[in-house]
Write a structure and sequence with these properties.
The chain is built from 8 helices and no strands. With 161 residues, it is an all-alpha fold. It has a single domain (27-159), classed as N-(1-d-carboxylethyl)-l-norvaline Dehydrogenase, domain 2. It is globular, with a radius of gyration of 17 Å. The N and C termini lie far apart (41 Å).
Length: 161
């Protein structure tokens, strides 16, 4: 919110919503939960989609990619909980169910921005996304080997250009 008055941002929220992008006013706790939800979504799908050159839907249909995503989600939840943070789902299992049953189907054809950056031969946001998660894992002494592998593989792809 802008200050403590949600009315101040109402015109902006309405304009964004009318443009076709759902927007709503939330309190700070909801904002933190939303940011973690988006962070986990992106650190699960973006690097893997770039490495395998697959859309989100294609990832979800691959037994092997699915198993990697399960591990990435588990690690992200471990890191989030160690940091004393939370999101809308208390467990990785709850999140997985929503991700595979609700989120991915509506973004089935989406190709991650990381994949699009690799295809354009430009630097990706991997440092900001997975790199940040790995730094938090180190800070809170949480193992994140799969996150580290994803990070390293995307950096190897970046090395090609």
């Amino acid at each position: 919110m802008y200050g403590n008055d949600p009315v101040a941002v109402e015109p902006l929220v309405n304009a964004i919503s009318e443009s076709g992008i759902p927007a709503e006013i939330v309190d700070r706790d909801d904002l933190r939960k939303s940011l973690w939800a988006k962070f986990i979504y992106n650190t699960t799908l973006n690097p893997l989609g770039a490495i395998l050159s697959m859309s989100y839907g294609e990832l979800s249909e691959s037994e092997y990619a699915h198993s990697i995503m399960d591990i990435l989600i588990e690690e992200a939840f471990d890191i989030m909980h160690a940091a004393g943070a939370g999101t809308y789902w208390n467990t990785a299992d709850e999140y997985r169910h929503v991700l595979f049953e609700q989120m991915i189907p509506v973004t089935y054809k989406h190709r991650s921005s990381t994949l699009q950056d690799i295809e354009k031969k430009q630097k990706t946001e991997i440092d900001t996304l997975t790199g940040s998660l790995i730094n938090m894992a180190s800070q809170y002494n949480v193992a994140a080997p799969m996150q580290t592998v994803m990070y390293s593989l995307v950096k190897a792809l970046e090395d090609k250009f």
